[in-house]
Design a protein that fits this description.
Elements: H1 2-15, H2 18-22, E1 42-43, H3 46-63, H4 67-82, H5 88-99, H6 103-122, E2 126-128, E3 130-136, E4 145-149, E5 168-174
Antiparallel strand pairs: 1-2, 3-4, 3-5
Length: 176
């Protein structure tokens, strides 16, 4: 199992952050105003900010167990990821969430989406706020599942109201 996790992490590091490493993306030197869903998070790159904002909308829909909102949110996120160099494969994962037939399938694919996006945001230029990497050890039949949040309080997207506060903060990504 540890080999599998190691391979997934390596894949994630290279899949959705290659543009960051290459320096090929366009960056805006001013912080982007964020919507209420992403509280006080300000990322230097406007495209990465949009990805984060759309991700939080999807995560919040899963927290609320709102299948009808999660699908369109995943499709919006997919559109943002598709135009960000290096995230094309991650866009396909998000698209799969959007096409899922039930919330259980959305949550299952959310795990794969997070592997890529956590790596992206760990390498992003954060101007303000803290992004929390959180984990529920019971998600995915006991294999666990991670997600990103703008707040330290656990709100579990894998179980929603069934186990809203199941999880812990693994890591904090701070502004540099």
């Amino acid at each position: 199992m540890n080999k599998y996790i190691g391979v997934v992490l390596l894949f994630a590091l290279f899949s959705c952050n290659s543009a960051t490493e290459n320096g090929d993306q366009t960056q805006d030197s001013t912080a982007v105003n964020v919507d209420s869903n992403s509280t006080n998070i300000a990322l230097k790159d406007t495209k990465v900010q949009e990805i984060y904002n759309n991700y939080i909308i999807l995560k919040d829909a899963l927290v609320a167990s709102n299948f009808e909102k999660a699908g369109p949110a995943a499709n919006d996120l997919s559109n943002k990821l598709a135009v960000y160099e290096g995230c094309e494969n991650t866009a396909l994962i998000s698209q799969k969430i959007g096409a899922a037939k039930n919330i259980a399938d959305q949550r299952k694919d959310f795990t794969n989406l997070n592997a890529d996006l956590i790596a992206l945001f760990k390498h992003a230029d954060l101007n303000a706020g803290t992004i929390y990497v959180q984990r529920c050890p019971m998600a995915n039949n006991g294999d666990g599942g991670e997600w990103l949040a703008s707040e330290k309080q656990i709100q579990n997207p894998y179980y929603g109201d069934e186990m809203m506060d199941c999880g812990a903060v693994l890591e904090e990504i701070h502004a540099k």
